[in-house]
Amino acid sequence: MRANPGKKVALPALAAETGAAVRSSSTPNGADTRDAMIRAAAYRCYERRGHVPGHEIEDWLRAEMEVDGQMNDKAGPDPAR
Hints:
Layout (H helix, E strand, L loop, with lengths): L10 H14 L5 H19 L7 H20 L6
Helix pairs in contact: 1-2, 2-3
């Protein structure tokens, strides 16, 4: 089940959907993997805050930075430098 972009979805439902997508996809492409990782990280931020709503954008941006940092660390140094 995919979320409708125009429809608001509760964060717990979104996290459950994300978890299912990560488990059911053995070889997702890079964009799908990144998106799933960001969703999971943003939900962890929401959980740490005690499920208090109203910080969704902050959580998402923090999660993007975290995931992109992890992905860059795994990629290694830029050979062009």
